[in-house]
Every structure is written in C-alpha cells, then in structure tokens.
Amino acid sequence: MMSLKPRNVDFTETWAHLKETVAGVVGLRAVERSVWNTRFSDVYALCVAHPEPLADKLYDETRNFLEEHVQGLLQRVRGTVALDNNDHNDGLLTRYVTAWREYSQGVAYLNSLYSYLNLQHVKRQKVSDAEIIYGSSATVTCPEHDARQLEVGELGLEIWERVLVKPLTSALTGRIVNALAAARESPPDPAHASILREAIHSTVQVRAFRVRAPLQLYQQLVLEPYLTAAAAAHAKLAAELLASGDVAHYTKHALAGLDREISLGARFLDSSSAEAVRGCYERAAVAAHLPALHATVHQLMKDAAADLPSASERRVDLRRMYTLLRPLGANALRPLVDAAHAQAAADGQALLALSHNKDEAHTHFVNAMLSLHGKYSKLFGEVFGGAQAFVGALDKACSAVVNSRLPSDGSARAPELLARYCDALLRKRAGGDADVDDKLAAAIVVFKYVDDKDVFQKYYARALARRLIHQLSASMEQEEAMINRLKAACGYEFTNKLHRMFTDVAVSADLNAKFQQHLRDNNLATSTGFFIQVLQAGAWPLGGAMAPLAPPQQLERPARLFEAFYRASFNGRRLAWLHHLCTGDLRTRYTPRLYHISATTPQCALLLSFETVDVWNARELRDSLQLAGDAWHRHLRPLLDAGLLIATGDVGSETEDDTSADATIALNLAFSCKRTKVRLTCANAPNHPGGSSSSNSGTAAEPGETAAHCDDDRKMYLQAAIVRIMKQRKVLRHTELIQEVVSQARGSFAPSVAMIKKCIEALIDKQYLERAPAALDTYSYLA
Amino acid sequence: MKVTVKSWTGVATWRWVANDDNCGICRMPFDSCCPDCKLPGDDCPLVWGACSHCFHIHCIVKWLHSQPQQQCPMCRQDWKFNNK
C-alpha cells in the first residue's frame, strides 16, 4: 500500500520509468499489471509532489514524447511511395489505418494511465461546455489553443492530427476520393472497404472530443473534396442518360443512381453527411435538368391516366419522376402539380360530355364525377403517395369540373343534378337498392365540390318536401342520415330548415293521433279515412299563395272538424290548406272494374262533381269549383290525359286562359286501364313571367326562378354578414371587408365581388355603414 | 255513388295570427323566432296578454323578470297572460 501523502519526488528518475511504460502502452506492447499499477502511482506521486507539484512538467514531457512518437509513425505511414500520384491502392491508406488503429487505442489506454492527472490537473483548468458555447467574459481563449487544457487522450489525438495528418492531407484526400469513386462503380472487397471506412472515420474520431466544429477535419479532408468530385460525376452521368434515352430511361437510372449514392454515403461516410450527399446528387443530376423534365410531365401525366396497357409503366415512370423532384421543393414540383390538375380537369370535362340519356342526366353527372374522383384519387395516391399538393390539385380540378357552366346560359347545373340524384335515391322504388347508403355517402363527395351549395339546398329542400308530403321516402332513417351528412359537410345553418321539416312531420303524426281521439270522444268519426300534415309556413319551400277552392262536400266535413279542433288546441294560429298537395284516395264504382285513384283535392272535386250528371259544361264546372287561372288546367289536364274525363271543344290550354262557352267535359264511363291503381299528379306550373298565379307543386320549378330566389337570399346573407363583420370591427378597409365576407360565405356559395359591392351600397343607403370621411376605401359602422 | 272517397290526406300550413307583424320587444317578425332561439315555431311560441298585446314568450318573460312591476311594455297595463 503506497502512501498518498505528498512527498519529494525525483522527476527525472520517475519520468524515465514512466516514459518506458508510456512507449509500451502507445505501441500496444504488453505491459505487466504490477508495472502498470506502479506507473499509475507514479503519475499520482508526480502530480502531488512536494514541495512543488510536477504535473505541468509531466504534461509537457508527455507531449514531447507523443510528438516524437507520432513523427515516427508518420515516417512509417508515408513509406516510400510518391505522395502525389493519388493511387488509392498504393498501400498508403492501409498503412495509415494500421497506424491509426494502434495509436488511437494506445492513446486511449494512456488516457487511463494519466487519469489522475486528467482529473485533478486538467479538469480544473478546463472551461465548461456551456462557457464555450455561450461564451463567457472569463474565457476568451479557445481551449484548443491552450494545449494544457486537454486531457492526455485528447492531447494525443490533437498531436496525431497536427503531426501526422497535416503533412499527409492532400495525399489522404486524393486517395479517399479516388477510392470512393471506384467504390461507386463497383463495390470494393471487404478488406479494402473497411480500410476506406476506417480512414474516413478516423478523421471524425480524431476531433470527436472537441466541442467546437468537431467535424471540421472530416469536412475539409473528405466531404468537401468528395462532393465536388461527385457533383461532376453526377452531372456527367445525368447528361449521358438524357442524351441516350427518353425521360423514362432517365428517371429510372437517375433514381437508381440516387439509391447507389445514398447507400455509398451510408456505408463509408459519417452519418451526419447523408443530407449533403443526397443534396449534392439532386442538384447535380436532377435540378440541373429541370426544364427538360418539366417539358415532359404533361405528356407523361396524360399517358399515366390513359386506359392503356402501357399506363401502368407510365405510372411507375411518373412515380420515379415525383420521387426525384419532391426533395427539390415546391417550385420543382409545381409543373407536375399543374399537369395533374390540367389532366384531371380535362378528363372530367370529357367524362361529362359523354353522350347520355337526358332523363338520366343526374345519374350520369354524379357517376361521372365519382368515377373521376375515384380514378384520380387512386392514381395520385398510388403515384404521389397522396401528397398534399396533389390532393389539392385534384380538389381544384374536381371543383372546376363540377361548377363548370353551360356555354348556352351560363348556369351551373351541378346543384340541380345532384339534388335530383339524391331525390332519385331516396324515393321509394320497386327494387330497393341495397347500396343506397353508400351511394348517398358518395354523393357527399361531389357535394363538397359544389360552389352553389345554397342552390343545391333549395332544390334538395323542395325534393325533400315532396317526398315527405307525398310519403314517397324509401326510409326515414336514410333521409335523416343524409341530412346529417349534409350537416357534417356544411353545418347547422345549412340544414336547420331540413330538420324543421322533419320535426313537422313527426309533430303531425302526433296531432293526427290526438285528432282521431278527439273524433272518437265526440262521436264525430267519419267513414272517410283522414290524415293531415300541418306544416310550419316558414320552413317549407312551398308555394305561398293558395288556390281558392270549394272543397267537395265529402271532404269539407273532416276539414272543418279539423280546423275547429286545431283552433281549440292552438292559440293564435291560422291554418291554410294547400289543396294541390293534398291527396285523396278514391274508388270508382261506375266502371266495370274497380279502380283506385289517388289525386289532388281539386281533382277529387272534379271527379266528385260527376255524381249526378255525366256531362258538364266546362265553364260552369270551373266556376262551381272556383278553380281559377291555371290551377284549372293543371288539375284538369292529368284527368284528361289519363282518360278519366273526355273534353269536347276548347277547354283552354295551359298558355291561354279561355275556356270557351260551349266546351263540355264528360265522364268517361268506359274508362279502362291495365293497372287498378291510377296515380294522378298535378301538372307543373307554366312559366308565367309574372308568376302571380298560384304556386306549383314544385316538381321542377323553372331554374331561372330558383336562381332569382337564390340571388335574393344571397343578398340578404351577404348584407347580414357585412353587418356582423362591421359591428365587430367598427372600421374596416374595403379589401379586408370583401375578404372577410368571402371567407364567411364560402360554406354555402362563392359570392361575386360585384354582388358584395352592391350589398355594401345598399347598406350605406340604409345607413348601416358610411364611408369614412378621411379615407375613401374605408367603411365605418353606424350603430 | 259513382265515386267514393276512401281516405284523404290533407296538407296545410300554419302561421301566427297576431295583431302586429313584429314582436314589440325584440322587433323580430312573429314568423321568425326571438333572438335567443334558432328555430321558429313550437319552440318559440307567442303569448297574448289580457291587454291583447302579443310577444314572443321568451321576450315577455325576460321583460317581466327585469321589471319591478308586471306591466305590458306597450300599454303599461298590468300584465296578465290571456289564456282564452
């Protein structure tokens, strides 16, 4: 057991012993354990020597020794070869690596031998990492410049770099770069490969302990020269590829080259330079040829989307192209995105233009859009991995196609067609489709692209009203699910009227039950079946004006009973009958076979009028039923068309309101029909310019009229939006106001700036807003 | 009987019958709802006072809660719900 007390030590003698061991350790020669332990104590003894610690002296001597040692190694490594021939197989790299292995390990051991020195003597002088990174007033000098602040192991590495690597820099660089170039062509054998790798990594390890710029040597010695050489090689390769074949050929080999380059980098270079290697390749081999690549994307996109056997190959090409271009950023991809957009839009227009049955226009439209969307979602997902830019391009293309306007009258048909499509699906049909739900869910995909969502809502609400009133819905669950889908897509505001209609139907069922109870309680029950739907005036898209009608006697009683009942149940409400929407189920008794006829109230009244006579004078009949204007024609026409009634003389056509005095209408006693159930509907309202007459049943109201309605609604919506915004902001510039309004309205329609301007004018007239006196383009809100 | 009616489905709409178009408190049309409601109709009914003035029920209740005396805001008579 040695004493830990400081004592007087003879430096020369101790160092002589120590030096021998140090030489052994650094040269990786065997050192006996007892010797090692003694030297360990010697280091301690020197460090704590009395009267004066000898640590500094020991440190200096050790440094001198290591410098000498490395000088010797340099001679060994350099050997006899000429340094400037840059032949990577001349053995220099091998010798370098052998020496590095030996030395680096030796120095690591040495570091342990000197651990007391490191711990007590060096640490104290060392500045902390934080001080180096963030700087501190106390330490202006960089630790690397003061050799006394390095641990012995670090000192050894520093000496290696200074004494051995410096003189060999250009020789090592040349050989490493050449070896890497050779490795790119053909993989070297494992022995050579590991030599090369170790040589490269030694440049990282030799500075690994440094806080500042640990990779500096590696970058100077290996990375930068390598990248310069590689860039030249890549550029040459790419030029050759482009010259020798088409773009498909190029993308294929360029991509293979990229992979090769990356794996080369991963195999030999430090992991930190993967990005740099990749970037270098992309710049040299891809970015330089962007114009040539961009010139081909349109054709490539077209071919990839085509229904040809070769399309799948083109898709692979396109994917390669995308893989090459993607890392170069949005600008390099822009032409590809544009091409995708153009291709999808063109394809969509072509699909829509395919010839189809006019009656099936809605199915054709939705199916075309769905197949377009499906096809390109799949294509872009497959080729571009569903990248955001391409999803966006597809969305833009779809929305452009969906909202494309007819050249003839400039109206977009999408809202109407889509609403009709939904209507057709939701109606009762003979063979109920099993996949209605899926189809409706798919329709939402198209719906999201429709700009004029408010127009769609109008059509949809009208169709829904018809289904609910005439009980044509295939299933209430489906109806409700569809409304919920619309709500999910467009929000509560959009569907609240639709919800309201649903509630009314439910409330009506309840009301009917109560009414029946009321009838039973008061012994008022009638033989006629009676069911009523009471709708809230504001929520339903039904014609406002009621056609006057003297209801037939058979129907008057239940109607009056109900009115009385309703008045008693609800305070302050007025009922208005919508006769054109009422349906009566009749049974004929005058014909050989019994027919069930379902017809509107006026039609029932017409048929019931023939109770006592077989022939009526047309004008008298009309007047007795108080059927005015076109309502007369609209209800009479289906009866005549079905053959239930026979008209002689001019009973008036739909366009002119002139029932001649001698025209007669007779009951067709010989009526026969193949089916026993006859369903009569009310004909559509003719297109009166004034539209003053009673409203129609809303089957397919004239699009122009709907558009006008929508325009009014939009103006109200915009004005409300403007007031809301201005109320909050008080003062706002014109452009900002327009922006805000557009963003608010986007959910239901795309407003034109002209319309917004008009609304602003209107609000200024109504004194909601004023132009700020000082600035012309600023509005302020008037409370 | 040549033709008999088996059953009849009537369709009718209803609207409020009030002596005014707008609620005197919130100034919204009676066909629409009070500012606190989203949907007009049964959820936002009208009420009549003994003085024959008519309001959204939510509006008049709010008004009565905020006043020391229970008066009709239009005519200052004591407010009584008219239950006819």
From TrEMBL, chain A:
SMART domains: CULLIN, Cullin_Nedd8. The keyword Protein transport does not apply. Pathway: Protein modification; protein ubiquitination. Residues 684-703 have a biased composition (Low complexity). Residues 684-707 are annotated as: Disordered. It holds the Pfam family Cullin. InterPro entries: Cullin, Cullin-like_AB, Cullin_CS, Cullin_homology, Cullin_homology_sf, Cullin_N, Cullin_neddylation_domain, Cullin_repeat-like_dom_sf. One of its GO terms (biological process) is ubiquitin-dependent protein catabolic process. Keywords: Acetylation, Isopeptide bond, Phosphoprotein, Ubl conjugation. One of its GO terms (molecular function) is ubiquitin protein ligase binding. One of its GO terms (cellular component) is nuclear lumen. The keyword Acetylation applies. Residues 413-640 form the Cullin family profile domain. Belongs to the cullin family. This is Cullin family profile domain-containing protein.
UniProtKB/TrEMBL annotation, chain B:
Keywords: Cell cycle, Cell division, Metal-binding, Mitosis, Nucleus, Ubl conjugation pathway, Zinc, Zinc-finger. It holds the Pfam family zf-ANAPC11. Pathway: Protein modification; protein ubiquitination. Residues 34-76 form the RING-type domain. One of its GO terms (cellular component) is anaphase-promoting complex. CDD domains: RING-H2_APC11 (cd16456). It comes from the Eukaryota. It is found in: Nucleus. One of its GO terms (biological process) is anaphase-promoting complex-dependent catabolic process. InterPro entries: RING-box_E3_Ubiquitin_Ligase (IPR051031), RING-H2_APC11 (IPR024991), Znf_RING (IPR001841), Znf_RING/FYVE/PHD (IPR013083). PANTHER family: RING BOX (PTHR11210). The mammalian APC/C is composed at least of 14 distinct subunits ANAPC1, ANAPC2, CDC27/APC3, ANAPC4, ANAPC5, CDC16/APC6, ANAPC7, CDC23/APC8, ANAPC10, ANAPC11, CDC26/APC12, ANAPC13, ANAPC15 and ANAPC16 that assemble into a complex of at least 19 chains with a combined molecular mass of around 1.2 MDa; APC/C interacts with FZR1 and FBXO5. Interacts with the cullin domain of ANAPC2. Interacts with UBE2D2. This is Anaphase-promoting complex subunit 11. It comes from Arctia plantaginis.
